[in-house]
Write a structure and sequence with these properties.
By secondary structure, the protein is of the alpha+beta class. 17% of the residues lie in helices and 35% in strands. The chain has a single domain, classed as 2,3-Dihydroxybiphenyl 1,2-Dioxygenase, domain 1, CATH 3.10.180.10. The strands form two sheets. Strands 2-3-4-1-13-16-15-14 form an eight-stranded mixed sheet. The protein has an eight-stranded mixed sheet with strand order 6-7-8-5-9-12-11-10, covered by helices on one side. The protein starts with 6 loop residues before the first strand and ends in a 6-residue tail after the last helix.
Length: 310
């Protein structure tokens, strides 16, 4: 069993427009945009990062907004819900706020003894706010009081068919997760002693395969401290039979990728070097930052990328 994984690092999804996506996360949800850059493989598309003040691993939601992208089709083999942690008594405040802003899909419910507020993002993305004790410091957004603000991730919920659920549970066990609780078709796994984003739920479903599009989670990333730990994880996964990519420099972390048995793309990302490697901490996410290989495209990209507030 691996000992290097801390919990979630980030979650990356697809969107149909940058402006609406940026407005939802920075205004409606009150997160900080900690990086405005572009997709390494498609530089005409932004890569936007939202999180706490510094983009601490376990707080960061990232997006590839492909202009006009069609919505994804929900189904098996995907992350159906990304859940954020909020303080214990914060859900009534959030329900009123989200309702007042026309956010769709609002449902108050309970899962495994925790109260949650389910809602949809601009592209039908599945989200939840989970009420719990959480001492992480939030980003001080202008109109979101600190005593209700989002603390970071609570969990991700993978919707998997029975075979994928069983195989993914075995993989999570290998990665250091332990079964924590279960009810009906939901089983919770938790990594002991990890970061504050230490929960992965598996919901077993009988459904057609999901079709990826706007509103779909592209991949989930797990945190390791550094490159040495990442190489240890990579070797162990490959020795177990997984097809793992070489280490890829993503400017703000190093990454490896592999496909989980249930169909969800997994990444293992380092906590180093962080989002302040090329911007002062006070101005994270303000300027358009380009990977070195795309620096020569700046003039063109600044013309074709959808304008979003600095």
């Amino acid at each position: 069993m691996l000992k290097q994984i801390n919990g979630l690092h980030h979650v990356t999804s697809l969107a149909s427009g940058a402006r609406a996506n940026n407005q939802f996360f920075t205004d409606t949800l009150g997160l900080r945009r900690v990086k405005k850059t572009v997709n390494f493989d498609a530089p005409d598309v932004y890569h936007l990062y939202y999180g706490d003040e510094m983009g601490t691993p376990g707080t960061v939601m990232t997006y590839f907004p492909f202009p006009g992208a069609r919505r994804g089709r929900p189904g098996a083999g995907e992350v159906g819900t990304t859940a954020f942690a909020v303080p214990k008594d914060a859900l009534p405040w959030w329900e009123e706020r989200l309702s007042g802003r026309g956010v769709e899909g609002l449902i108050r419910t309970d899962r495994l003894g925790e109260e949650r507020l389910i809602f949809k993002g601009p592209d039908g993305d599945g989200f939840a706010l989970v009420a719990r004790d959480d001492d992480r410091a939030p980003w001080a957004a202008e109109d979101v009081p600190e005593d209700v603000a989002i603390r970071g991730f609570h969990s991700v919920d993978m919707r998997l068919d029975p075979r994928g659920a069983a195989a993914s549970a075995e993989l999570l066990g290998f990665m250091g997760y332990e079964k924590d609780d279960s009810a009906d078709n939901v089983t919770r796994y938790r990594i002991a002693g990890g970061d504050d984003a230490q929960v992965v739920d598996i919901t077993e479903v009988d459904a057609a395969p999901a079709g990826q599009g706007a509103g779909s989670v592209h991949h989930i990333a797990f945190s390791v401290d550094d490159r040495a730990a990442q190489l240890e994880v990579r070797k162990a996964l490959m020795d177990t039979g997984f097809d793992v990519t070489p280490v890829i420099d993503r400017d703000y972390f190093w990454a490896i990728y592999f496909r989980s048995p249930g169909g969800v793309l997994f990444e293992v990302a380092t906590n180093e070097p962080g989002f302040d490697r090329d911007e002062d901490a006070a101005h994270l996410g303000e300027a358009l930052k380009l990977p070195q290989q795309h620096a020569h495209l700046r003039e063109r990209l600044e013309k074709v990328l959808e304008p979003i507030p600095d």
